[in-house]
Amino acid sequence: MKEYVDLYDNFRNKTGDIIERRDIVPRGLYRLIIHVLIFDRKGRLLIQKRSKIKKSWPNLWDLTVSGAVSSGESSQLAASRELFEELGIKYDFSKSYPNISVNTGFRIDDVFIISNKNIDLNKLKLQKEEVSDAKFVSLNELIKIIDEKEFVPYQKDYINLLFYLRNNSNLFVND
After folding, report:
1. Which of 7, 46, 49, 154 is in the most buried spot, having the most CB atoms within 10 Å?
2. Are strands 14-20 and 4-8 parallel, antiparallel or unpaired?
3. In a domain, 174, yes or no
4. Strand 45-50 versus strand 4-8 pairing type
């Protein structure tokens, strides 16, 4: 089944153009990607191991959930859909705004952070085509996994920022 994504301009307005998910994004345009991060009460991040049959980065650990925003979807709807599809967790993002939005050149990555959520790993419903395992890790444990080349290649500074945002959702102080 073919998946399609909307294209956006540099002001995040839909252009009306749609491409297949795996197609190259034309220069100067963007597509939306979501990431959902779940931190437990101990400040550990839930990470998932990508299935060995995935086309990109098979058998590597990844953030809690990541995925493309399908054509016609909002980031919020895609975050709810992906979280349920990959891990069987229901969560309503309809009133949420991404904690951070990052422009990575040809895509805009919207990151949603859920903090202080205790999840029983035994009750997760892993989507076999996408996910082979899940576990909670501390920042130090995650950096070690990155150093061992067992994690999707995110920059360590980005991972540090995500952990920082978990604890500091209000980055600006009012005068």
Report:
1. 46
2. antiparallel
3. no
4. unpaired
pLDDT band at 116 (very low <50, low <70, confident <90, very high): confident
Q: Which residues contact 167 (CB under 8 A, 6 or more apart)?
A: 43
Residue 7 three-state SS: strand
Q: What is the largest CA-CA distance in the chain?
A: 53
Within-domain flag for 173? no
What is the per-residue burial (b if ≥16 Cβ within 10 Å, else e) of 115-145?
eeeebeeeebebbeebbbebebbebeebbeb
Number of domains in the chain: 1
Q: Model confidence over 44-88: pLDDT tens digits?
A: 999 999 999 999 999 999 999 999 999 999 999 999 999 999 999
Contact 154, 143 (CB under 8 A): no
**What is the 3-state composition of the chain as percent helix, strand, coil, each rounded to the nearest 5?**
20, 30, 50
